[in-house]
Write a structure and sequence with these properties.
single chain; 81 residues; mainly beta; six-stranded antiparallel beta sheet
Length: 81
């Protein structure tokens, strides 16, 4: 995985091993010694459909490797650009 840094566009899966539900966002800050990414939401996808029923929200996501099952299902956080 490419290094996540401020300005990176990332995809963050909602559930380990399920790539049908995720958020795409731009990293605006990195907190707690590099363990938490704060993102400006760009897109929310739920069950392979763009979610238009709720407004996309800003979100935070822990660095990959800090959540249960990250070792079994790598790729929870992916740098897109």
């Amino acid at each position: 995985m490419s290094e996540v840094k401020v300005g990176s566009i990332i995809r963050s899966l909602d559930f380990a091993g399920n790539d049908t539900c995720y958020m795409i966002g731009k990293v605006v800050s990195i907190l707690e010694g590099g363990d938490l990414y704060n993102c400006k939401a760009i897109l929310k996808v739920w069950e392979d459909k763009v979610d238009t029923t709720t407004r996309s929200r800003d979100f935070s996501v822990p660095r990959e490797g800090l959540i249960f099952a990250d070792d079994v299902f790598p790729g929870r956080v992916t740098v897109l650009a």
